[in-house]
């Protein structure tokens, strides 16, 4: 990440703040404004990253329809680098939609989950270019009732 100047850190943190506010409020239009055209989203629920702004927005919409009340609370303060923010987070929500996992379609029953994780957000020219979420996927799936062990 490198040691940023105050101006670089402020710009990166501002872009992260716009992305985070839009993400947490479910503001798809706000996300569209802050995501770069070539944005990539790396999710532990997918075997390959989602690439491109439109695909990232579709991924966000699918995720929030699968896991209702999805929140990603920040455990402040985030670390800010030249072009990235690294933040500790806690994911909470309920599995109320549908999820294809392990070769079968699972239907949510409203089971809630709380899973700690880490968020990496890269920024270029005031736009988010990469979002990577890291967490114990099996713990999330266990709590949601998708897997039992």
Overall description:
The protein has 149 residues and is α+β, with helices and mostly antiparallel strands. The chain is built from 4 helices and 8 strands, in the order ααββαββββββα. A hairpin with a 2-residue loop joins strand 5 (98-101) and strand 6. Helix 1 (6-25) runs antiparallel to helix 2 (28-34).
| Helix count, DSSP H or I runs of 4 or more residues | 4
Quote the average pLDDT.
94
Structural class comes to alpha+beta
Q: What would you call the shape?
A: globular
Instruction: Output the strand order for the largest sheet.
Output: 2-1-8-7-4-3
Describe, in short, the structure shown.
The protein is built from four helices and eight strands, in the order H-H-E-E-H-E-E-E-E-E-E-H.
Quick tags:
149 residues; alpha+beta; two-stranded antiparallel ribbon; 4 helices; 45% strand
Fold blueprint:
Blueprint: H1 6-25, H2 28-34, E1 35-42, E2 50-51, H3 53-66, E3 67-80, E4 84-95, E5 98-101, E6 104-107, E7 111-124, E8 127-135, H4 137-144
Parallel strand pairs: 1-8
Antiparallel strand pairs: 1-2, 3-4, 4-7, 5-6, 7-8
Helix pairs in contact: 1-2
């Amino acid at each position: 990440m490198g040691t940023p100047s105050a101006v670089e850190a402020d710009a990166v943190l501002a872009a992260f703040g716009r992305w985070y506010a839009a993400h947490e409020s479910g503001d798809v239009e706000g996300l569209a404004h802050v995501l770069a055209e070539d944005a990539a989203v790396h999710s532990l629920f997918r075997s390959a990253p989602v690439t491109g702004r439109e695909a990232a927005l579709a991924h966000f919409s699918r995720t929030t329809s699968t896991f209702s009340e999805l929140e990603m609370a920040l455990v402040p303060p985030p670390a800010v680098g030249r072009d990235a923010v690294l933040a500790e987070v806690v994911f909470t929500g309920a599995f109320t939609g549908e999820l294809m996992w392990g070769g079968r379609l699972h239907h949510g029953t409203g089971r809630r989950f709380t899973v700690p994780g880490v968020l990496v957000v890269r920024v270029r020219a005031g736009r988010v270019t990469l979002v990577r979420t890291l967490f114990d996927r099996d713990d999330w799936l266990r709590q949601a009732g998708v897997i039992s062990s």
